């Protein structure tokens, strides 16, 4: 089924369709912008962390390189010569020279480190740490030395031997170099990096924990450390996580020299806040625009759609024949004028229809009066010939009976002062008519059964006579054998019913159906006006539910049922009145 939209629905859909592409395009643009900025945040965080890692690795590489190259210094090699071993003065002088060289290196280096030299052959030790005493203990170097920096007691330490092949058994080496630097050097770099950027870098090791800058958020770093510890980390990478209800991007790089991870995290929302604020402002504007659009649509609905719907409903009722419809104008606008004009038009149409209808009723009543005043000449001639014949035959009783019944009959049908009569009056008139017909047709019998409560009910005048006349003329007279007419009445729940049956020749179902249809059609020259007038008068006086109904009779002829519901019901007795004649 094809949908049909009214003007209001089309306007509402148009407003919605205008908002949908705007919202869709902005949402797509916003997502693309956020995606670009997120990628930039990730790249910047990764690049910044890579720069920091390179700086740290560069310093550590210098320390490691110095540890390897220091073994090639001539002073250190001379310090291990046998002739210097036997000359204490020269050894002290040489040791002072070695320490000066190491101090000069520390002075030139970015990081201050503690360099300690162990001489397994002479079991001596030299160190730039003047606040501690270092001695060579063979048991300290019984195990192989680690080949990477290791963290302990807040410092990173790295060992090398001369030759390098002695790392697995340091006691066989000529020189063991130990270089250590405090973790505060890394903390300083972390502070410097944080001051220049928006991140919060730190170092992470699954076994050792974290090394943070001085102003680090310990709570967030502790939560992030737990996540890093539970994750499988590659040599470098990044991921997004949520800490304390805020989304962060975490970037990490593994340090091959230290064995730790350089980690940095930045809040995504803080960087995206301008775009988020712009997005929220846009959606707020759209919401306000939508509310305003709904307000405009509501105003249009009240000011335009409701009057249009009211006008459409009124027009439909008017076209269906309800000319009493009136519209209720509201407000003071153009539609109020239109609705007012519609009411004037409907009133004028109603008055015109009522005038036409009244004229039609007057014409119908005039026709009815004419019918009531008409006397069937053939019927009158037959009755007069019957009286003449009975008079010649000296049958005074038949002459008197025919004259009295004929007089009462014509007195009733020629009364025109009132369209309504009682059922009692109609039955009396019908009795006179049937007595006249039974005198003429000795082979006809009739039966009338009426309950007393029905006799005082109003009914239109001359309701039964045309029906009984049709039963005699079209039902009984065409057949040779005796005929019967049966008239019965009932009164139940305020509804009056009278049935007229005959034992005549009857009719086929198609003929009965055609007669029933003719009752609702306009009168034309091909239709009998008797029963049509009866049906029309009953409908006019008692409503659409009143009228005639055709059906087959159990007697063999036609049964006509007359039904109506009086406006003023009358109560009567409960004993039935029965009349039988021949």
TrEMBL record:
One of its GO terms (molecular function) is phosphorelay sensor kinase activity. It is found in: Cell membrane. The keyword Transferase applies. Residues 302-354 form the HAMP domain. Keywords: Cell membrane, Kinase, Membrane, Phosphoprotein, Transferase, Transmembrane, Transmembrane helix. It is a multi-pass membrane protein. It holds the Pfam family HAMP. SUPFAM superfamilies: ATPase domain of HSP90 chaperone/DNA topoisomerase II/histidine kinase, HAMP domain-like. The keyword Disulfide bond does not apply. The chain crosses the membrane at residues 281-301. GO terms for cellular component: plasma membrane. This is Integral membrane sensor signal transduction histidine kinase. It comes from Paenibacillus curdlanolyticus YK9. The lineage of its organism: Bacteria, Bacillati, Bacillota, Bacilli, Bacillales.
